[in-house]
Specification:
Order of helices and strands: HHHHHH
Number of domains: 1
Structural class: mainly alpha
Distance between the termini: 48 Å
Shape: elongated
Keywords: Signal
Largest sheet: none
Strand content: under 5%
Length: 143
C-alpha cells in the first residue's frame, strides 16, 4: 500500500500535472508573448531567437504533434549551424547580395539549408503546430 501511495505522488514531485496535453498548453501560453515578439520582428534572424522556446515546446509536446515540431526545428537548427559555420550574420544575409567573403561552397550550403526551412514539409509542419495550439489549447502560438 505504501508503494502505491508513493507512485501517486511522483507526478507532483516532478512538477507536472500528469496531463501532458495540459502541460503542453501551459507551455504554449507561457511562451506566447516571446513568440509574438519574434513573429512581429522585422529582423530575419529573429527566428533563431525562438529556437530555445521551440525546443521547450517540443519537449512538452504530446506525441501527436512532436514529429511536426521536429520538422520545424531541425531545419532551422541546420540553417543556424550553416550560417555560423560560414560566419554569416542571419540578420543581414541576403541571397541576392551574399557577403563578399562567403565562398561558393558556403553560399550553396546556406541556400540548401534555407530551402529546407522553406520547404513544403517544414511549412506544413509549422501550420500543423499552429493549428494544434489553436484547436487543442485554445490559443495561438503568437498573437
Amino acid at each position: 500500500m505504501r508503494l502505491a501511495a508513493l507512485l501517486l505522488l511522483v507526478p507532483l514531485a516532478v512538477g507536472c500535472s500528469g496531463d501532458p496535453q495540459a502541460d503542453y498548453c501551459d507551455g504554449v501560453e507561457e511562451h506566447q508573448r516571446e513568440l509574438s515578439d519574434v513573429a512581429a520582428s522585422e529582423d530575419p534572424g529573429a527566428i533563431f531567437d525562438a529556437l530555445d522556446t521551440y525546443d521547450d515546446l517540443r519537449e512538452e509536446a504530446p506525441r501527436d504533434i512532436a514529429d511536426d515540431w521536429d520538422a520545424v526545428i531541425d531545419p532551422l537548427r541546420r540553417l543556424e549551424e550553416v550560417l555560423a559555420d560560414n560566419g554569416v550574420d542571419p540578420s543581414s544575409y541576403a541571397a541576392d547580395e551574399p557577403p563578399a567573403d562567403l565562398d561558393d561552397e558556403g553560399r550553396e550550403a546556406v541556400e540548401a539549408a534555407a530551402r529546407d526551412v522553406g520547404s513544403e514539409q517544414t511549412v506544413t509542419a509549422m501550420a500543423a503546430v499552429e493549428q494544434h495550439a489553436l484547436d487543442v489549447c485554445g490559443t495561438p502560438l503568437s498573437r
